[in-house]
Amino acid sequence: MLTTLSPAYRNMAIQFIFLITFIGIMTCWSSSRSLAQVTLLIPSQPSIEKPSPVAPTGKVKQPSSQSVPAPLSGSGETRSIAQEVDVLITMMRPFLHQGLPMDMPQLFAVLRYDAETPVTDGLLQPERRDLLGDVEEILYLEQKAWGANVALDHPGLHHFIIEARPWWDAARQRFIQHYVKTTVPVYGIDRGWHLPAGQRMEILPLTRPFGLTVPVLFLGRAVRSGNPMADVPVRMLRINTDKRTAPTPWHEELVGRTDGNGQFSFVLHQPGWWCCQATVEGAPLKGPDGHPRPLELSALFWLYVDSPVAAPGKR
């Protein structure tokens, strides 16, 4: 058909076809990125700091020469405390800041490390507490979600973990399942932040995942059943609470691949909650039509990055 047109009209037609094709490709890229779904595991506070001693006058008490020195970071305190943290569990599209309905996870637990954590065969054995019974159904961004108020009775480094149920992604004709983790240091204890939580697959941070300020280089390692997830896609997504627009779809997330040891690194350039996600293919599951359908498995790790001028308690 184009051969019957004059050269001028033929060039215009070719340019028009190229433009339509380019728009279609960009729309597909934008859709696949903006519609990215992740499982949130977000505590109400990225860390819980020890209260400063206050004198009866309301002024901060100055330490005397006979005061007992405060424990060093990671040294651990065994005394009881009365703290709590609210934990949000939900599905969302982070760049769009759009909620999605989520079924109750099939596992929700917390592991606590401190200086008294016992060692067996050279491995630390943290205290573990199952929390699934504490979960309540809530609404978040007008969608079905889950929340829990978790009592913190002792200082320590807390790993919160969940195992989501596989769900059917009709648009992609596949199942998706997420294994999610986040870390909350309580009263300045950081022992164990780099250690595995025993999930089927997980992200092990190689950069301490708290006390971070933008810009920051974050390094991690993806493992599955204790083995490195070599040469797999990994990406960092930020919850776009301020609804910023992106100049191109590629600016909506950071994307890379792990090396042969499962390691990766990213520079996080904006403050807020970031999710690191590494993905592999799992064993197919029976789909709604009764035929085997692909299963996509992802390890997710959530961390918070402060702005350069963030004041304590203002995060």
Q: How would you describe what is shown here?
A:
By secondary structure, the protein is mainly beta. The protein has one domain. The protein is 9% helix and 44% strand. It is built from 1 helix and 21 strands. The strands form 4 sheets. Strands 4, 7, 10, 11, 12, 14, 17, 18, 20 and 21 form a 10-stranded mixed sheet that branches. Strands 1, 2, 3, 8 and 9 form a 5-stranded antiparallel sheet that branches. Strands 13, 15, 16 and 19 form a 4-stranded antiparallel sheet that branches. Strand 5 and strand 6 form a beta hairpin. The longest helix is centred in the N-terminal third of the chain and has 28 residues. The chain is globular. About 10% of the residues have low confidence.
Give the helices and strands, then pairings:
Layout: H1 7-34, E1 38-43, E2 83-93, E3 98-100, E4 107-113, E5 119-120, E6 123-124, E7 127-130, E8 136-140, E9 143-152, E10 156-163, E11 167-169, E12 174-186, E13 201-205, E14 212-213, E15 216-224, E16 227-228, E17 233-238, E18 254-257, E19 263-268, E20 272-286, E21 292-306
Parallel strand pairs: 12-21, 14-21
Antiparallel strand pairs: 1-2, 2-3, 2-9, 4-7, 4-10, 5-6, 8-9, 10-12, 11-12, 13-15, 15-16, 15-19, 17-18, 17-20, 20-21
